[in-house]
UniProtKB/TrEMBL annotation:
Top-rank EC class of the record's enzyme: hydrolase
PROSITE patterns hit by this protein: HTH_ARAC_FAMILY_1, HTH_ARAC_FAMILY_2
Residues in HTH araC/xylS-type domain copies: 87-185
EC number, as in UniProt: 3.2.2.21
Species of provenance: Amycolatopsis iheyensis
The protein, known as: DNA-3-methyladenine glycosylase II
GO BP terms in the entry: base-excision repair, AP site formation; DNA alkylation repair; methylation
GO cellular component, one term: protein-DNA complex
Keyword annotations from UniProtKB, A to Z: Activator, DNA damage, DNA repair, DNA-binding, Metal-binding, Methyltransferase, Transcription, Transcription regulation, Transferase, Zinc
One term of GO molecular function: sequence-specific DNA binding
């Protein structure tokens, strides 16, 4: 979009927040870059230049605006709508892969050479993987500077910088302030401690929290997830340790409180929370298309901004999807809770009732199938999944949607419902669809959509947003997953 100069100018002049994250405005006279919705008086068009990423603007020598903080805007929805190389790379960079494994590790995960990855990412974003990861480290550093009382030396290492000098130079270059000056400018007192950080996760309006939080809480696994004091809380398995997050819907943002055993995990934890709540979606684009169907239009109008509740761990969700085959939500939670107690890693949660991390695939590899209170066929399905996960099946942020679907379909006991559920919730495919789901069948009958074949045919007009259409169809039923939990 950044190449359409006139459209970008109109968005900036209108201060249209819908375009935050789609592109960045660089002001040639001040050498500052902003988000489209920056509240200052827009510059003259002749003084504007547009970039596809904050990293590209930084590489061109522009500094982040101190007023609108463009580095903290919602991410581009493109990276969660697409399954090509660049989109997969961006999801992995956001998950911290470059910081932990380098560009070579990123390329290995994607199945391409380092040169191919660098060339394609630069061609679309105006910056390579290292520059994009550097921009992310700068934002992490700013968050830690403003929300904790950590000494700068510890903070630099936690943000992913190799030295205090690199940390100081990067912060000055990106924000035109020293780390100490950034801390002094922060409003109020730090809201976090050495292990707890409070963030505001922005999103594009509108947002309907009912199905989003209702689904997560109604299907939550005891000990791993809970609803407490108006917030959804859960444990997180992270690259350097574990964490606990509390997420609460607010106007224009999600209040996020993270307690981490290692602050180096802040970027990965933040990225996974955003994916969990689908916060980088473009709800206006989704609703506009779904609203063209006369049967969906009233549902969209009644609850604009529905998101797709996803997951923080693809392997975890796949295991839970198998446990939920042909049983009620309550039964699936019971099966999962038993696995957690038997094979999960215990943690301490002084602020609530969370007790475990969900078991890893490696931990489940040693389970005795005879201890599972489920049909023998489903035991075989679960063991086959665990074997595939330990053997390299990738259900993470950078997975190939088509290839992963094929791998899942080849496993015993994996039918369309299970595969599409995983595609929707774990892989994040916005076009995943479950026509065989009982909730969809009920909605089709209620709305007069016809039988399964008719629903599939009609759903072609909903593409590529069939996962969002599913959320609206499920909402036609009186089910707890469609309602916001009571505070």
């Amino acid at each position: 979009m950044h190449e359409d100069f006139e459209q970008c100018v109109r968005a900036v002049q209108a201060k249209d927040a819908r375009f935050d994250g789609w592109f960045y405005t660089a002001v040639l006279t001040t050498k500052i870059y902003c988000r489209p919705s920056c509240p200052v008086v827009p510059p003259k068009p002749k003084n504007m230049s547009f970039y596809p990423s904050a990293a590209a603007a930084q590489q061109a020598g522009f500094r982040a605006c101190k007023r609108c903080r463009p580095d903290a805007s919602p991410g581009s929805p493109l990276w969660n709508e697409r399954a090509d190389l660049v989109a997969r790379a961006m999801r992995l960079i956001a998950d911290g892969v470059v910081d932990t494994e380098g560009v070579s590790g990123l390329a290995d995960r994607l199945g391409y050479s380092v040169r191919q990855v660098q060339r394609q990412v630069f061609a679309e974003l105006g910056a390579g993987p290292l520059a994009l990861a550097r921009a992310q480290r700068a934002q992490t550093a700013r968050t830690l500077i403003e929300t904790t009382t950590l000494p700068m030396t510890e903070l630099a290492l936690a943000a992913g910088f190799g030295s205090i000098r690199t940390f100081n130079d990067t912060v000055r270059e990106v924000f035109a302030l020293s780390p100490t000056e950034l801390r002094q400018r922060a409003k109020g007192k730090p809201s976090g401690t050495a292990g707890a950080i409070v963030l505001r996760l922005p999103y594009r309006k509108p947002l309907c929290p009912d199905n989003l939080f209702g689904h997560l809480v109604a299907t939550g696994v005891p000990g791993v997830e809970e609803w407490r004091d108006g917030a959804y809380r859960r444990t997180l398995r992270l690259p350097h340790g574990h964490g606990v997050v509390a997420l609460r819907p607010e106007d224009g943002h999600i209040a996020c409180r993270l307690t981490l055993t290692d602050l180096r995990d802040l970027p990965a934890a933040t990225s996974r929370c955003r994916r969990l709540l689908d916060l980088d979606a473009d709800p206006v684009a989704v609703d506009d298309q779904l609203g063209t169907d006369p049967l969906l239009a009233p549902l969209v109008a009644a609850a604009p901004g529905r998101r797709v509740p996803r997951t923080v761990d693809g392997a975890e969700f796949a295991v839970r999807a198998v446990l939920g085959q042909q049983v009620s939500t309550a039964a699936a939670r019971t099966h999962a809770a038993r696995l957690v107690v038997a094979h999960g890693e215990p943690i301490e949660d002084p602020e609530g009732g969370l007790t475990h991390l969900f078991p890893s695939a490696e931990a489940l590899a040693s389970l005795d199938p005879e201890t599972l209170a489920m049909p023998r066929s489903r035991r075989r399905t679960l063991l086959a999944l665990v074997s595939a996960l330990t053997g390299g099946l990738d259900l993470g942020a950078g997975s190939d949607w088509a290839g992963t679907r094929a791998e899942l379909t080849a496993l015993p006991g994996f039918g369309p419902w299970t595969v599409e559920s995983i595609a929707m919730r774990a892989l994040g495919d916005p076009d995943a669809f479950l026509p065989t789901d009982l909730g969809i069948k009920y909605a089709a009958e209620t709305l007069g959509l016809g039988g399964q074949a008719a629903v599939v045919a009609r759903s072609a007009a909903w593409r590529p947003w069939r996962a969002y259409a599913t959320q609206h169809l499920w909402a036609t039923g009186d089910h707890a997953i469609n309602r916001m939990p009571a505070a």
